[in-house]
Amino acid sequence: MSDAATRPAHGPGSAWDTPEAVGRVESAYRADDVTRVRSAQIDLLGSLDGLRVLDVGAGPGIFARDLALRGARVTAMDSAPAMLEAARAEAARAGVELELLQGDASAPPVEDGAFDAAVVVQVVEYVPDAVGCLAAVARAVRPGGSLLVCDTDWTTAAWGIADTALAERVKAGWCATKEHPDAGRRIPDWLEAAGCRIVAWEPRLLAVADAAGDTFHAHTWPSYRSTLERSGALTATELERFQALCLEATAAGRFSFTVVRHGWLARVGGGAP
Ligand SMILES: C[S@@+](CC[C@H](N)C(=O)[O-])C[C@H]1O[C@@H](n2cnc3c(N)ncnc32)[C@H](O)[C@@H]1O
């Protein structure tokens, strides 16, 4: 059995718990295209001054850092120790305080109602029981508090390259590797099933015009490529050709990669907002 097949899906020893994953997520999430989406998603929460916020699946702490820079008292929770180490370094660099907590998004190890708000960003697409996870996170939030859930709808991914059929096959192959490829558009149903009430929606296009520079696409593609090759969806030759077409289109100034990222804000339980 391959290494990938025997690894846990998350937490210690998982593919998230590696320097490679930390480096990929950090560099991709620092890129301008992702930074613009993150800023709009955080805007959904309104004023954060002094609020206690739980960031579930915080990764290397970039979203948590930005919450703290806006005045929130943030607990950054993740199941992968390597991600928490990176979040510690991120907080030190930014001069903000983050409380770090190791825990599973499906059962956060915190008291019921301990937080004014919780955020779950780019995590629920990986969690088999999305409703159970969001219900567990909602319990950590006081009645009337906020739950912000953001995720990608990978079924909307599109690459502006000459071979559109190949781009479609890359999309289908990538979606097949996901627990919930269409997570972004399913969040409102999941939130309602978890007992929350939707109050705002912020759809954002993650739009990339450069397959080689400091962009989400450039930082994530090497890992996506090996995942696609391992899955058998495309051959190494097809993936090499896809990459060459992306670079060719970039050099000609006509590359585009777009995918929709949804942000859904919900109110938890009863009580005053
Ligand atoms: C793509 S990163 C997102 C990081 C961060 N939320 C952001 O948007 O900047 C996904 C993170 O979720 C974490 N994760 C995945 N499944 C988890 C689970 N069941 N419990 C806790 N963390 C989980 C991974 O360790 C990883 O750090």
Brief rundown of the structure:
By secondary structure, the chain is α/β, with parallel strands linked by helices.
How do the strands of the widest beta sheet line up side by side?
A: 3-2-1-4-5-7-6
Q: Could you tell me how far the N terminus lies from the C terminus, measured between alpha carbons in angstroms?
A: 51 Å
Task: Give me the CATH superfamily of one domain.
Answer: Vaccinia Virus protein VP39
Tally the helices: 10
CATH class of one domain: Alpha Beta
CATH fold field value of one domain: Rossmann fold
For the biggest sheet, the summary is: 7 strands, mixed
Bound chemical compounds: S-adenosylmethionine
Proportion of beta-strand residues: 15-25%
SSE pattern, N- to C-terminal: HHHEHEHEEHEHHEHHE
Low-confidence stretches: none
Topology of this structure?
Blueprint: H1 3-6, H2 19-30, H3 32-43, E1 52-56, H4 62-69, E2 73-78, H5 81-94, E3 98-102, E4 115-121, H6 130-139, E5 141-159, H7 164-176, H8 183-193, E6 196-208, H9 216-231, H10 236-251, E7 257-268
Helix pairs in contact: 2-9, 4-5
This protein binds S-adenosylmethionine.
S-adenosylmethionine binds at residues 10, 16, 25, 29, 57-59, 62-63, 78-80, 83, 104-106, 121-123, 126-127.
